[in-house]
Prior knowledge:
The chain is α+β, with helices and mostly antiparallel strands. Among the domains are: about 5-95, DnaJ domain (Helix Hairpins, Orthogonal Bundle); about 260-330, HSP40/DNAj peptide-binding domain (Sandwich), CATH 2.60.260; about 335-375, no CATH class. It has 9 helices and 15 strands. The chain has a 4-stranded mixed sheet. A 3-stranded mixed sheet has the order 1-9-8. A two-stranded antiparallel sheet has the order 2-7. A hairpin with a 2-residue loop joins strand 12 and strand 13 (about 290-295). Helix 2 (about 15-30) runs antiparallel to helix 3 (about 40-55). The protein is elongated. Mean pLDDT is about 80; it is low at about 75-100 and about 365-370.
Amino acid sequence: xxxxxxxxxxxxxxxxxxxxxxxxxxxxxxxxxxxxxxxxxxxxxxxxxxxxxxxxxxxxxxxxxxxxxxxxxxxxxxxxxxxxxxxxxxxxxxxxxxxxxxxxxxxxxxxxxxxxxxxxxxxxxxxxxxxxxxxxxxxxxxxxxxxxxxxxxxxxxxxxxxxxxxxxxxxxxxxxxxxxxxxxxxxxxxxxxxxxxxxxxxxxxxxxxxxxxxxxxxxxxxxxxxxxxxxxxxxxxxxxxxxxxxxxxxxxxxxxxxxxxxxxxxxxxxxxxxxxxxxxxxxxxxxxxxxxxxxxxxxxxxxxxxxxxxxxxxxxxxxxxxxxxxxxxxxxxxxxxxxxxxxxxxxxxxxxxxxxxxxxxxxxxxxxxxxxxxxxx
Length: 377
């Protein structure tokens, strides 16, 4: 052998494909004409490229290791452009996989995913439910069964690319004559053309239609929750597999309850007398009527917690709690009898406006704490 390809790439004879590719890329970055305009570097680049062409191909490498010259049929190094795939070199130089996709591409492709939004009330978000949906989407054409061709016709082999799906062109470059490939403009790379398309779908193999779908809404959903329905999206061209359907939930505001995570909150107003004397108040929840015990002496703003009466948990099961905020209603208008009763109560409790003020020091109120703070200085 006149030239040692392994020595040219500075790799051992048992080097793997990745090691050979890395060695070539390193030399190509050094010798490529766009980087190094030296004529000697260009000649070395041609030889190094030929070495990579041989050692990266298992069959050519085996022939070379047995003493043969895989490039001899094209005249040694000067003719390595014949049959040489410029795409392989560019992939190796710029980090590709060294092999491009060949042959016609299929007309059948996966359909797109679809997204719809639905509004539910808070009760549905708490307990879950089922919902009937009518969606407009792409489905397989029943006339041609997804083939895209009219009755009694089939796709025809493209006359330009002869069914290959690509055409090749020979161009001159600094490497000599280089053969490049691109998708066939006549068949768009499919290798076939549809001379007689289906009158229903115009050759696409699918049509838009409305269909009904039942979905299950799990307990605990909230605004922004997305439910994925695999394979319920649009059917792909030429009866390709369908994409997925995503249903996004929007929870409408409730007039009584407000949601914070898995807990619900509401406000219940009780009369002043009920707060003072205590009583039982009925509250209608999502679980039905529930009795709430208001203890005597309840203060405004107190919160009663009803365990397990909140929203469902989307993951993990169970439910949150219901927080009942108590608001004490103070009457704004009193008749003479009511006013007299309240004054009598104030006399009995020795509660008069002139006695209302800061707590004394013995009670430990705010005034005493401020006085002690100043006296300590």
